[in-house]
Amino acid sequence: MFNKDRGNRGKEWATTGGRAYKTIEAPTWRLSRGELTVYTAKHAFLERHHDAVILGGWESPAYWQTLFAARRGNLPTIGFFESTLRTSQFRSGPIARARRLFFRLVDAVVVPGSAARDAVLAMGVPNEKIYVGFNAVDVRQIHQAAEKSRSSCAAPTHSPGHEFIYVGRLIGLKNLRSLLKAFALVRAPEDRLTIVGQGSERSVLEDLANHLGLGSSVVFAGLMPYSELGPTLAAAHTLVLPSTKEVWGLVVNEALAAGLQVVVSDACGVADSVIGMRGVFITGTSVVGLADGLLKARNSWHGPTHLPDVLEKTPEAFGRVFLDAVRSTSPTIGQSS
Fold this sequence. Notes:
Layout: E1 28-33, E2 36-41, E3 53-55, H1 61-72, E4 77-80, H2 94-105, E5 108-111, H3 114-121, E6 130-132, H4 139-151, E7 163-167, H5 176-186, E8 192-196, H6 202-211, E9 218-222, H7 229-234, E10 238-241, H8 250-257, E11 261-265, H9 271-274, E12 280-283, H10 287-300, H11 315-329
Parallel strand pairs: 3-4, 4-5, 5-6, 7-8, 7-10, 8-9, 10-11, 11-12
Antiparallel strand pairs: 1-2
Helix pairs in contact: 4-8, 5-10
């Protein structure tokens, strides 16, 4: 989301070294139409030494091929599902029935949060087959970068006004028009809203900001390298994610890790999983609801949180949820000899 405009994160955030395992790319045919891409496996690639199969999706033929191959070989299967009831498409019809069948056939399902769990339960999957984790990024790295930036005085923690920030694509479902209107309603003279990202709505949003008389209190920062995220967040006070539709919202993890408050709409999958964390304000998606969240965040600001709750939600912790799901299908997997 920082160095390109297709929405998916670039490779710079991924771990590329020090692995204790090897990866093999399965040969596939790829078919793309618009934003939709599906894959079909060219040939069987499961081998006898595999202990279990984790399926990261269900939409492509390759997932179905792998699922049936695993079942023929008596290999445990674990599905991963991250959509929520609000973001899942096809509530009925053949595609919805296929999705239900897929997740009923796997031996266990891992979900990133309670909102996704509710969507899987709605498919008729028993609760005992569902393992709930917390969608993860490298929160410790973000935290360290933000703290280092503050300690070097590159990001002052005190400023005349409140520093709001949005990070993500500039597209309709992100609800940025409502955010600008909400900010116009509640901003104090020295408050500022920084919008990081690029997208098809940028010119519309710039025109709206001018129409609302926001002037220099709104800054469109454009794209930036992911490596600059920690220091950029450290310079802010409150992240706002006002989306009308959001499977999760990883930038909320990152902002909390950086010690910020967050105003996040209840349409985001992350919302149910961060309720109760320090500095979290859940709002509706309307202008009035967002304005109320901005006011509460500004009035509650007393400086960054130096030991945020989200630091416990590491990729390693999420990995253990997957391991628990795998072990539930075969208790001997993962045990040392």
